[in-house]
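Internal tracking record. Fields below are filled automatically when a chain is submitted to the structure queue. Please do not edit lines marked as system-generated. If the sequence contains nonstandard residues, flag them in the REMARKS field before resubmitting.
Queue: standard
Priority: normal
Entity type: single polypeptide chain
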Amino acid sequence: MVAQHFYISPEDYLEAERVSPIKHEYRRGRVYAMAGAKKPHVVIAGNLSSLLNVHLKEQPCLVMASDIKVRLETADCYYYPDVVVTCHPEDITTTEDFIRYPKLIIEVLSKSTANFDSTEKFADYQTCSTLEDYVLVSQTEQQIVHYTLKDGLWLRHEVTDRVGVERSQFLYLPSVDCELTLPDIYRKVPGFEA
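SYSTEM-GENERATED OUTPUT FOLLOWS
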């Protein structure tokens, strides 16, 4: 038996999403329900959001966590990043339930999303002309993969506390001129030492 997939327009998706009790992401006519996050995921995203809000408090930027969609027109997608920063006037003043011009996107990885977030979703995010930093944060070990756009190329940098790996305890985000440490990012996360 062949599975049938029905195309859903972006407009129909947005209309349904506004009344849905659960969140869904949209990718080229298909809609995917999002699972609830585990405590480590929530704490990490909260830490990152708090740190970035404090850092950007005097800047004309918004830091938003998990409940705002990013519209990727070229890729025909709507995604809910775990943390997103926009400094674009249109995003800051709009009352829409999505933004179009992120500078920084952070995804906290789970077993079910890690592969997609680091491949296909990253490819979709790269269609956004304003994105400068893309960050993937593990919730099972203190490990972060950071992609930053420099001279038209996405450069990869790893931040980890793993033994046997060239270690860096600092995550520098050029898009918002902010340096974060692993202990701050993973503060109070169940399963990790303080």
